[in-house]
Amino acid sequence: MTFIKNTPEAWQEHWQASGFSEPSIIQAKSFQPLKEKQNVLGISPTGSGKTLAYVLPLLLNVEKAQGSQLLILAPSQELAMQISQVVRDWASLLELKTQLLIGGANVSRQVEKLKKKPEILVGTPGRVLELIKAKKIKSHLLKTIVMDEVDQLFHEKEMNLTKQILTSAPTDFQLVFYSATADRVTEEAQKLAEQLTIIDVTDEDHSAGTVNHYYVNLSPRKKSAYLRSLSYTSDFRGMVFFNQVADLGAVEEKLVYEGLSVVSLASDQNKALRKLAIDQFSNKKAVMLLTTDIAARGLDFEAVPYVINTEVPLSEESYIHRAGRVGRMGASGTVITFVNDATKRDYQRILKKIGLTTQEIFLYEGTLHLTRKEKSLTEERAASSEKIKKVPTEQRKEKVKKRPKNSKNKGARRKTSQGQKE
């Protein structure tokens, strides 16, 4: 019997209506420890249902109309928005209120909504800390704090904000950490949470579908042209990642000018533009979502078959999370990375560390191929003809080099003729 059968009837109906069958491994193993208010570090592959793994048991511990008790922190606005939607879907069935708190949104409206005393808060560290300092969030009421994509929240910039939030909370509260790459921050998590229960299902969770990893040898100047050609291949729809926002903007400008249906999601956009890009890509009104690592974590788009890295990601974690946008919950997917002579070795090093295999892929005749294009008989004849045309020119060059010998003879003849005249 799965844990879902022991939850409220409204949840059981919603579970079935959502098309779920059996809980994923991380969901099944997380339920009881979290329900018992243990401090937990959860690690599982991307797309394995981590959000529901902590949301469902923690919501059952929340008491109605008792103030803000559950705080969920996320490293990006996009992830916070997506988590809040998931939480709202399940919390509303228990008559619990959820409030989203992110930067880029009107803070005055957020303050007004906090007056309604929502039981669950979902937000980014910067805005949450701002509201705590303004005494708009009653942090002493918090019973549980969740850090989704914890390794991101432990980066130097975010860690300072996160620690200030933890310091403002009561001394006795539950700490929960989740990420596909949380194993890299286990030591830091143990410093913050006593008696930490680690649930790592990485080796036993095989819910991900088949994901193939390929690379393309490509000059950086040809990125836009290649992406344009790729967009015309059959059933193409993909997330296209850049390391720098400036590069994203330059490519987007070219593709939009050429009439391609692309949207972009970047850190320099306001909340409205970000939401518009997510909605358009989600509703399949755009074939490409151009983005940076801002969209590599947590964002879940239905049936995305391709991830394109326009350059080699800067770390193994970045590659893992980008690639995790495909192959979710049994679906298959393809990851293609653009490399050149200067970056190919970095690409091979990253994949070796992760334990993935790769091979070169080629695009011609409107389709991706695993073999190079064979030259046609016409092309071979043209190449052969070109070689024949070049031979006389080369021979002429050789004759030019031999002229000094002739000039010596001419000089000798001139001397002889001069001698005869004398």
Automatic annotation (TrEMBL):
Q: Which UniProt keywords apply?
A: ATP-binding, Helicase, Hydrolase, Nucleotide-binding
- Output compositional bias ranges, type Basic residues: 398-416
Q: Name one GO cellular component term.
A: ribosome
SUPFAM superfamilies, sorted? P-loop containing nucleoside triphosphate hydrolases (SSF52540)
Instruction: Enumerate the residue ranges of region (Disordered).
Output: 375-422
Membrane-spanning parts? none
Q: Which InterPro entries match?
A: DEAD/DEAH_box_helicase_dom (IPR011545), DEAD/DEAH_RhlB (IPR044742), DEAD_box_RNA_helicases (IPR050547), Helicase_ATP-bd (IPR014001), Helicase_C-like (IPR001650), P-loop_NTPase (IPR027417)
Outline the extent of the Helicase ATP-binding domain.
31-200
Determine if ATP-binding is one of this entry's keywords.
yes
Q: Which Gene3D superfamilies match?
A: P-loop containing nucleotide triphosphate hydrolases
| Protein name in the entry | DEAD/DEAH box helicase
Organism (species): Candidatus Enterococcus dunnyi
